[in-house]
Amino acid sequence: MAALTAVALPDAIKTLYERRLLTRALPRLVHGRFGQQARWKGFGTYEVRRWESLNLVSSTIAEGNNPPEGSAPTITVITLTPNWYGTYVEYTDQLLLTSFDPVLSEISALLGEQAGLSVDTLIRNDITDNATTDFAGSATARTNVDNVNDVIAFADLVQNAASLEANNALPLEGPYYVCIMHPYSWATLMQDSTFVTLFTREGGEAIRSGMVGIILNLKIYVSSNARIYTAGGQGSIDVFDMLFIGKEAYTVAGFAGLFPNIAGDGGGPQVRGGMTGKRVSVVELVVKDLGQTGFDPLNRRGTVGWKLTNTQTVLNANWIRNLEHANDFSG
């Protein structure tokens, strides 16, 4: 007689769980979605090229003559090796039998939120650490940011947007740069009369993208995961971070969901960059049914987990700025 074994999760059900995971993961990835796509090189590495601008031409051309040959552009090649991340949650047969909620579906959704938040934080920390840093008000360092003189104001946005322009940063979305801020900083700016007068709501953007509107040459995104330096300012106030991003300021590799429809067999948008001919989920959902986790003679335990690869680096610090500031909630 054949032994009774655990039945593998049907593909249709696993696909449903994967969709729930991705639905919860992608809205969290505010900081990662504006990075330049690194190209798959092979053997576990990605590659991105930075092209330096050419110098201006000021010499005239004499009649009938050719101009002198110009200098070749300088190309900097950056190679990236993504790191692996992941975790899992164990469940029991008793939980499946007695729980009112659809356990695996809910766990998959929560794991997706965790994966998205984890990657977004890794990217956020790296790009804020390596961007050009500015301070609101009269502050010159994080430790002397105070909640009287250095509260975020409209003038700070103007200064940082102008700095991107002065450094010839290219717009990122249409004619706009991107600005990412915390909801507390957003709430503070909404009490600045100049900001409110010039700010324009954007109704066509999906709410889950975090984009709330436009001011000057900036598209404003609000994220609860914007960086906070707890007790980092004067008098141990919390100092908040606000990012100003131009095109090709940084690159992200490994988490292909940031760049949908980039490669694969045409079977859908969720494929890993460069791996043509093979469809691979951006975050791999790993489901071990009861009895599939190892020595488990009574099929009492199963697991649901995720794994992914990710890395990032700043390509041009002049095209990404982080403004450290206080807001109405800093104290």
The CATH architecture term of the largest domain is 2-Layer Sandwich
Structural class: alpha+beta
Give Rg in angstroms: 24 Å
End-to-end distance? 71 Å
**Count of strand segments:** 16
Report the helical percentage: 10-25%
CATH topology of the largest domain: Major capsid protein gp5 fold
The major pleated sheet works out as: 8 strands, mixed
Strand content: 25-35%
Number of domains: 2
CATH level-1 class of the largest domain = Alpha Beta
The string of secondary-structure elements, in order, is HEEEEEHHEHEHHEEEEEEEEE
Provide an overview of this structure.
There is one protein chain. The chain contains six helices and 16 strands. The protein is α+β, with helices and mostly antiparallel strands and 331 residues long. The protein has two domains: 153 residues, Major capsid protein gp5 fold; 128 residues, capsid protein of prophage fold. The longest helix is centred in the middle third of the chain and has 28 residues. The protein is globular and about 90 Å long. 35% of the residues are buried. The N terminus is likely disordered.
Question: What are the key terms here?
Answer:
331 residues, alpha+beta, Major capsid protein gp5 fold, capsid protein of prophage fold, 2 domains, eight-stranded mixed sheet, five-stranded mixed sheet, 6 helices, 23% helix, globular, disordered N terminus
Q: Quick summary of this structure?
A:
This protein is an alpha+beta fold. Helices cover 23% and strands 27% of the residues.
